[in-house]
Write a structure and sequence with these properties.
Elements: H1 2-27, H2 31-41, H3 54-70, E1 73-74, E2 82-92, E3 98-103, E4 106-110, E5 116-120, E6 126-136, E7 142-143, E8 148-149, E9 160-164, H4 186-196, E10 200-204, H5 207-210, H6 214-221, E11 225-228, E12 241-245, H7 247-256, H8 261-267, E13 276-303, E14 314-320, E15 325-330, E16 333-336, H9 339-358, E17 366-372, H10 380-387, E18 396-401, E19 413-417, H11 423-434, E20 438-441, H12 455-460, E21 465-469, H13 481-492, H14 507-524, H15 539-551
Parallel strand pairs: 6-9, 9-10, 10-12, 14-17, 14-18, 18-21, 19-20
Antiparallel strand pairs: 1-13, 2-11, 2-13, 3-4, 3-13, 5-12, 6-13, 7-8, 13-17, 15-16, 19-21
Length: 553
């Protein structure tokens, strides 16, 4: 009897001890510590944190100081915390840009900005495409998991490819129905043109297939643009140019080849689609561009695990430290402080880092803290890390990305971008439910949010990634509060109004971070790594990554 009671007491102590260390780590997460970081990072002194500015220097210095204070190890092999990210700034001379085509019916010139947008895709200063053939390739998708191939083995080298934007939506079992996958993103189309050795790429714009009107295209692509600076020799086979055409211009272009645009767009929805040459039509494109070198930095830290076999595997936490910097004044204010986007996310990662450091002896795997630059320029910092990783992506069990956190108060629910796509999602949903929360899938799937923040760069190299969003079922708030929050967010997004305001209530973010902490601990200490669900579009990248690791241990 006494002996049994003794073992029962010992077991209780062990269980209590396990609970205590996790609770002690979670207790370090608080709305006060989050607010402290946000107040600094979104202050006017930090000038909106634009890349390659004094504001970025102050931001990186602040993050480095916090890493050192917490006891986070440098994340690079050379013992440093910063990964230099080389960027290329491009300006197209809009006065010299021309797009013309000829057909048996004559010659037609399009007007830059109003009818077409184009830019060099090979980093050349002078583009002169003459008498080029056009080939319409539908959506331009190659997806073996859906038995879908729009190219059908046709050699497209030396041709300009014309794409329908988006992906098929008519079947919930095909390309996730109305939820846009990466196959439907414009960037996928341009990447396929590069991969196939095409001379150029043109996307037909329609508001339904893009999800936004032509003016968004014109304004986005008509300003100075930034890309990662390519390594020498890597752009030799790149297409000469990428472009968008308006719906009306596309209709006229197809008509010049005796084709009906509407019929051709509809034909792309069939898996039996065959590429269609625009017979008799030839195009000429002239572009002049200037370039400038620019640099930003990723900040990388590590909290090492303690298991001899698992400490070389990682959970990556991401957030982006950049915002839009200083722009034209609006009522005397020219600083885009970026409090919500994404000073809050950086604050969340720093707060989680403090908690993980406190429980470090209980971590089997390691935590990699990746606070990237140039997200607002097109996910460039995270893309650079994915292409030049400080740790092999095959050793990364998962990625949790914090971008636009729950700053407006506690909720009963939580949105999860990536819901159900990988086993990391299953863990987070389970833990959230244990915290009394309901987890919802992406509530606006047609917007393709999974492909618009830094977790996407991780997913592309096979890492099971998640992007938690805010909830809308608020606790302790007046009726109609969710609608007020929506209007405040819309008014503040990407402008000088993104500051801490009277609606902020960081109890919601504190609650969310404690869920992320508990879910991350489960992932860090799980027997196996997280996986994509069978048939997911990133499953193949994960398998290829793991096979490379197995072949080169």
């Amino acid at each position: 009897m006494f002996r049994g009671l003794y073992f029962l007491l010992i077991s209780s102590v062990v269980i209590s001890s396990c609970s205590n260390w996790q609770d002690q780590g979670a207790a370090l997460i608080s709305k006060e510590t989050v607010l402290k970081h946000v107040e600094v990072l979104s202050s006017d002194e930090f000038e909106g944190r634009a890349p390659a500015t004094r504001g970025e220097d102050l931001t990186v210095e602040y993050i480095l100081n916090e890493f050192e204070r917490i006891g986070v190890e440098p994340g690079l092999e050379d013992g440093s915390y910063t990964q230099e990210v080389p960027l290329l700034a491009m300006n197209v001379n809009r006065d010299a840009a021309s797009f013309t085509y000829s057909s048996p019916d004559g010659r037609k010139s399009l007007e830059y900005y109003r009818e077409f947008m184009a830019w060099p895709s090979n980093e050349e200063e002078r583009i002169r495409v003459r008498n080029a053939e056009l080939l319409y390739v539908g959506y331009g998708i190659e997806a073996p998991e859906f038995n879908w191939d729009d190219f059908k083995g046709v050699d497209v080298k030396g041709k300009v490819l014309v794409f329908k934007n988006s992906d098929p939506e008519y079947d919930p079992e095909l390309f996730a129905g109305e939820a846009r996958l990466y196959y439907g993103r414009w960037s996928y189309k341009f990447e396929k043109a590069f991969e196939k050795g095409a001379l150029g790429a043109i996307i037909v714009h329609t508001t339904p297939t893009a999800g936004y009107p032509w003016l968004v295209v014109a304004n986005s692509w008509g300003r100075q643009r930034f890309t990662l600076k390519s390594a020498p020799g890597t752009m030799e086979n790149a297409p000469a140019f990428n472009a968008w055409l308006t719906t009306n211009s596309s209709q006229e272009l197809f008509a010049a080849a005796g084709l009906n645009l509407g019929e051709q767009l509809a034909a792309a929805d069939s898996p039996d689609f065959q590429p269609v040459p625009l017979t008799g039509v030839r195009i000429n494109v002239s572009l002049d561009a200037t370039y400038g070198d620019l640099g930003t930095r990723n900040v990388v830290g590590k909290i090492s695990g303690t298991d001899p076999k698992l400490k070389d595997e990682y959970l990556v936490l991401t957030a982006h430290h950049d915002h839009l910097g200083v722009t034209m004044p609006v009522q005397g204010d020219s600083i885009n402080n970026g409090a919500h986007d994404d000073a809050a996310g950086v604050a969340g990662v720093l707060n989680l880092a403090e908690s993980f450091k406190a429980v470090q002896p209980n971590l089997k795997r390691s935590v990699l803290l990746l606070i990237v630059g140039a997200e607002e320029m097109g996910l460039l910092g995270s893309k650079y890390w994915a292409e030049n990783p400080t740790e092999d992506p095959a050793t990364v069990t998962g990625n949790l990305n914090l971008d636009g956190s729950q700053v407006y108060g506690p909720t009963r629910d939580m949105e999860l971008i990536g819901y159900g796509r990988n086993t990391f999602s299953d863990v987070l949903v389970k833990v959230a439910e244990q915290h009394g929360r309901t987890v919802l899938p992406d509530q606006a799937p047609a917007q393709g949010l999974f492909y618009r923040s830094d977790h996407f760069s991780m997913a592309k190299v096979g890492i099971p990634a998640l992007f938690p969003g805010g909830g809308s079922d608020y606790i302790g708030k007046p009726e109609g509060y969710a609608a007020i929050v929506d209007s405040v967010q819309a008014a503040n997004y990407h402008n000088v109004n993104d500051e801490i305001n009277e609606y902020w209530d960081l109890q919601g973010m504190e609650n969310d971070l404690k869920i992320f902490f508990d879910a991350s601990l489960e992932v860090l200490n799980a027997p196996g790594m997280m996986e994509w669900k069978p048939g997911d579009e990133f499953e193949a990248a994960r398998k290829a990554s793991l096979e490379r690791r197995s072949a080169n241990p």
